[in-house]
DNA sequence: AGTCCTGTTGTGAGTACTCACTCATTTGTT
DNA sequence: AACAAATGAGTGAGTACTCACAACAGGACT
């Protein structure tokens, strides 16, 4: 299995997959994904041996893209509140301005097409962000919600908030701070 | 098109669909649904003319089942806090003990297979519950989150909470009250 | 009782279609 | 010329849905 020639085509296929799956669900056909990337269907299978391989590569691609966006806005704040708020804002902004990425990533997260191996490989590349969301917070007054629950609540609230910001952008700031307030006032002891 | 003979078979088909779709997604085949209900594939199409009709009937069935469960536990409390908490507990309990119903309903809610007509017909049968969750709360101190946001936050937190209770039942009560606290302390002014 | 008649319900092989995936061929580069 | 990359019609498996028929109920008439 030689390495694919063109990184461009690989990216084009991944972004086409994200866009089309956001609209049609994970069941979107390989034919339409290839067409969207401007290549033949057979070419898709040169880059991703099976559709499952594509799912896993897409999960990795989207997660790393999100992580890169978060890192850019992770200025060091004095207060934990400020730090978490910056993370929150960056997350919401990424979701709103990459809506099809966001939608597809959410579907992949709950899908059984993404293997545990892929998930843990990606997670290990995100340890710096986890640190803020979790290790740091434990030492600073966040409530003792059972393991992982605070993370999940953060994600669930962010997902809801993004939906509302997209649907009604005029009130975007209101949703953003309301969503954060729910998370924060409910999480702090 | 005469009415189907046996209400039993109709229910069996709906419950089979809910169970199989919870495991395999909405794309589960009509063949497997019929097999799960113990009838031939052709029989499914005597009860539901197309798969889309089945989706809509299933949405209605599950929503009404949930509503019935909520009504049973909607004792009148003196405080708004108590009333909403009772609603929260009933919702979580239903999700936990009808997990496949819950999972399938969540997929149907975001699916475009369920028509606006079905949604509004069902909603009109749930007005008494909406009253507590919304009309009542507006008059009693819930924060002025933009329209529908509080509802969505409630649902998102409940979904997350149910996942954790199912995954780790020993700490069920802890998740349940933690989830409610996030909702409540973030929602009250 | 037993046997035909009639209408509806239940059946599953059959149909047309879409899907993921293949491979002989063409295209492009060196 | 030599080689790999790209192509897209072709393949078999699986899909939603159909339809000619089997199964069975309950009268009505011997």
TrEMBL record, chains A, B:
GO molecular function: DNA binding
The HTH tetR-type domain, residue ranges: 7-66
A Pfam cross-reference name: TetR_N
Residue stretches in coiled coil: none
Source lineage: Bacteria, Pseudomonadati, Pseudomonadota, Betaproteobacteria, Neisseriales
Stated name of the protein: TetR/AcrR family transcriptional regulator
Domain of life: Bacteria
Keywords: DNA-binding, Repressor, Transcription, Transcription regulation
Residue ranges of DNA binding: 29-48
Organism of provenance: Aquitalea palustris
